[in-house]
Amino acid sequence: MNQLINHHPASFRDPSGFIYEQNGTVYRFVSTIYASHYSLLMNSGLAAELQKKNLLLAFSEATDNHLGRADWYKTLVPQQLPFISYAWEWSFSQLKDAALATLAVCKLALQKGMILKDATHTNMQWVDGKWKLIDTLSFETYTTGESWIAYRQFCECFLNPLLVAAHTGMEVNRLLLSYPDGVPANITAKLLPFKTKFNAVVYLHVHLQAKLAAKPATEQKGSGKKLSQKNIEQILESLCSCIEGLNLPQQTTTWNNYYSETILSETYLSEKKKLISAILADESYKSVIDLGANEGEFSLLCRQDASVIATDFDSACIDSLYNRLKKEKRKNILPLVLDLTYPSPAMGWMNAERKAFFSRANADVCMALALIHHFAIAKNISFGQLASFFASICKTLIIEFVPKEDPKVQSMLQWRKDIFEEFTVEEFEKAFASFFSLQQKVTVNGSQRTIFVYRKK
Amino acid sequence: MMQLLYLDPGSGSYLVQVIIAAVLGVIFYFKSGWNWIKSFFVKTPPKEEEENESAD
């Protein structure tokens, strides 16, 4: 029997337990040092209530001590997640909802005599249309008089990036890529406009914290006052109402409202939708990755039982897709912000803690609609490079070719020298033929654009 | 305290929380007073159902 056990490289910070993988299943090891907290989590009814409210990832207990460790207490089998996304791939509303879910978990925990000891975005995932805490061992027994140990972490991971985004328009995904463990209060205080100093809640959670953080921890102690549970509840409540009130400043990017404003619009869009629907109906697939999804018009055509990842580099598009999915209760599509020319890198300890995007994502079907001319022309990426990239992530490729004569490409070439002699449909087909076999080739009515369906060789 | 094994003791930022709690306490005190007065004049609409509640 294969006894290959892989200790997950992102699971080492907490001594209470860790994640490991065995024969393709992910397990959670719970150590004896966590025993009392775990019993309270289960016996107080907290775990059951959180799961009922869709705030905690489902898990069951297994009886095997796979690792043969002496400090073994329990083995948990969490609901298996096909894909883990990171906060540097989330839009504003996604981070905001993850923050509110974290606070909701903590409030419920307090009612049951427990508290969150970790409040990081890496513990939250959007599963089946809900934000859920995935780390079962994030709880500990609450002792009256204690502060909220994860308060600073919560502010850095959620509140601060959201505040900066709401006040300056900076994107939360870019902020968190620079500060994967969260944006510190002193940086946030400098990024926020001066007027925020007159907002009592922002002053307390950010500006005051920035001032006090400059002092060494030892000087912070000894203020005799104990915090009551009511105090902690009020802190949670104030964080909650502050975050609920945050919104992105209204702005129109090049890409949101692309379909409603572009000259291509209406007939082109409806023709293309018809075509893609027909192509998808003929395919059998369980997973789809839609690259350059814009506001997700084509991701929404995928089968509802397939898991779809819809990516775009424009966070405003992803934000509006996310809000639409929430409203329409579509659970199978995960919208993510992704710049294909700078996809999320491998990060953390030994570059193994957080995986690179394309070592997590691959799919049965990849859709790349009205996408590659941006890479070929704006980024000088050759058809050969593009073909080999697509071959590495999918089995079936639905790709649109936009020729040079197209008004969109013409506008891209307007201000630059046309050095793209090889940008022809013949060269495109030649390059893709070395990795894929052609299944279908259809022109979108009313345009010069062509859709190709390719199967990987 | 087991969490201190892997988190630095300053990370709870105890002092900040004590100050925030004190200020929020004062705000809450005045707010509830104000709401008490307001309740004589304004009819409060019923609170909406919690959204995250499971529907299925």
From TrEMBL, chain A:
This is SAM-dependent methyltransferase. Gene3D superfamilies: Vaccinia Virus protein VP39. One of its GO terms (biological process) is methylation. GO terms for molecular function: methyltransferase activity. Keywords: Methyltransferase, Transferase. It comes from Lacibacter luteus. CDD domains: AdoMet_MTases (cd02440).
